[in-house]
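for the record, two folds in this file. i put them one after another cuz i was lazy. first one right below, seq on top, structure tokens after. the second one comes after a little note so u can tell where it starts
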Amino acid sequence: MLWGLASCTAFDVITVLRQKFHQKVTAYEVRVEADQAERPPQVFTAVRIHHVVTGLEIDPAAIEEAIRLSEEKYCSVGAMLKQTAPFKTTYEIIKEKTSWMAQTPATVTT
């Protein structure tokens, strides 16, 4: 279930960041972990989601809105899991200094 949650929210967040907010995301990672009840049924009792966004001039407000939309509107896996466990969501931004696409290509001599 956690892989499904990670896939669902990752797709939502990266799509919103790139298409709605036109963020220059060069890498993206989502980490999900959870606590489970000790006795059957061992439902999740707490879920932690951490988004790592790498890019140029990434706007924190855009990330927060993309995460909010995923959690409140788009991700059906998250909507189901929230019925049994609270979510704690965090994020971090890793700033790229320059775009790898803007760098001068290496010269090859033969």
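(here's the note) second protein begins now
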Amino acid sequence: MTCLSSLARKWGDGLAQFSTTGAALDIGNAIESLREPGTKVVVFATSYGTFLGNRYLNLFPGQADAAVFGGICPATGCSIRHDRSTDLVAQETFRVCSTDPFCRSKLSADPWGKLEEIYQRVRRGHCNDLYGRDTEYFLSALLDAALGERTLVPVALATAYRIDRCSPADVSAVMNLARVMMPWAFPVTSRDGISAYLYENIVESEFWDGITPDQLRYEYFDYLVSPGYGFSMADQHEAWPWPLYSTPSELKRWAPVSTPMLLVNGTLDLPTPIADLQGIEAAFPGPTQTVVRVPNEGHGAILEDCPLSIVRAFVENPSIRPNISCLSAMEAIDLRGSSSLSRQVFGTNDLWENAGQSAAPAFLADTPTDPGLLRAIDRAREGLKHRW
């Protein structure tokens, strides 16, 4: 807090210079200064960087030759509505289950309805051995930790299945998963190396359009899979001591550019839900502007093999609409899960069943190696914070 106060005293209202607009001006001026004649400039941005990239395009509409965005924040600001985002991705995940015969055999022909039933039972005391009176919150937080990663889709679904059954072996397996994926609950977390004050300065000033702290808090009650992060976000917003700055509305719109654009988002993206991108095709209707929805992938969708091959083709020749046919192979997803993944998350040989076990698993979870699991663990170790 000493550093926070010291910066406020030093800069005062000048803190507003440390904004998305300020960063976008820096990017445009740097390109202008460093660009050599005849050099092609392609702007590549992911997550919050897409919000910054769109601001840059608003300010320098003719400078770049092309732009690639992945894990896209809306032009009005990255979403702080984490409870809503979690529920949206949970609904899509359980919808995927409804299309798979194996998954339907475990969670019924209506998996989302089954999850609603599980929550109702938990509220009445079912499976309280997990987390006592806070088992409902525990379930939402655990699902939130697993959602948004392709390889962890079966883990999220099997977690609901195990909590529904709630045998002693299931309780042990789910607690094993919690120790792997929710270290903050035990607690062992660490912040990453971002500039926390710059980060909060932008979040608190630019991402609260159309919602109040109380509205964010009470969204917890509007959704099924709702980990309740809106409470801490609202408290933090109200306690933020620096002056909030404003951004002109014309800079909080999709940039009206004809620049070739490739816009990539996963259908399971939790930090930047695809539902928040309604109207993006209308905003970028040009013949060289392409929106790519990546099936069953999360926030890092753009870095997977198929989307990355689309990016490479686009960067090589932005004037040609890229071939996106490889996406069709990503529609299929294995919901059974492997014994290796099960050992990493549950400490059991089978993701869904206990194979005769009636008590705790005979061994601890294997060292995590699954890429999606490793990403989820990294996020969890940062503690509860925004993910873009």
